[in-house]
Design a protein that fits this description.
55% of the residues are buried. Helix 7 runs antiparallel to helix 8. The protein is mostly helical. It starts with a strand and ends in a 6-residue tail after the last helix. It has 8 helices and 2 strands; from the N terminus they run βααααβαααα.
């Protein structure tokens, strides 16, 4: 079972990963975007950490919903609404239970990813964060470690793709040959989940 503390640790691990990789995310975004993805993600997850220090949501669903709202309110561009929607819709799908099962979380995370797809109008192969998130959702039913591996592979697979959504799509053929920053940050989110799940006793989430 996954309790509220598990999800608190996930958000903390994600914030640490984003801090560590912010420069790389910005470099990736400089090639095909606005060169602000790293700083935007860093600001957003620092804000999530700050609000979770001040407030104490009592359930996993409430914690993720709060984190999502914080991202939407503090991050400009596309990152805030997309990541905020992912966490907020995942949290809402978890409901009000004080603990959730691994399968409940996997289903809820899938709901969050579906909401991201609807918001951004993207699908697999469009060179977006969904290229990491959709394979992760499919693998999460097996384990968080499998989801991490799938997300990382999905992010790497964006390199030869032509961007069809977002700022990078304006570049047309010139977007080919660059790893998508959104898919890369999505892989960081799922990698952080796997780290927490493995430290929780097993590789499941």
């Amino acid at each position: 079972m996954l309790d509220t503390e598990f999800f608190r640790r996930w958000m903390a691990a994600t914030a640490a990963a984003v801090d560590r990789e912010a420069g790389r995310l910005t470099d990736l975004d400089a090639a095909i975007g606005d060169a602000d993805h790293g700083s935007n993600m860093q600001r957003g997850f620092n804000a999530v950490s700050a609000v979770l220090e001040k407030e104490s949501p009592e359930t996993p669903g409430a914690l993720l919903t709060l984190a999502g709202r914080q991202l939407i309110s503090t991050v400009g561009g596309a990152s805030g609404p997309l990541y905020g929607t992912l966490l907020r819709c995942t949290g809402k799908a978890l409901g009000t239970e004080s603990e959730v099962t691994e399968s409940q979380f996997a289903e809820a995370f899938g709901t969050g990813v579906e909401a991201v797809a609807q918001l951004g109008g993207a699908k697999t192969g469009d060179k977006t964060m969904l290229d990491a998130l959709l394979p992760a959702v499919q693998a999460l039913g097996t384990s968080a470690g499998a989801a991490r591996d799938a997300a990382r592979a999905g992010a790497l697979a964006t390199v030869p793709l032509r961007a069809r959504k977002g700022r990078a799509s304006y570049l047309g053929e010139r977007s080919i040959g660059h790893q998508d920053p959104g898919a890369t940050s999505a892989a960081l989110l799922v990698t952080a989940l796997a780290e927490v799940a493995e430290s929780n006793g097993g590789g499941d989430a």
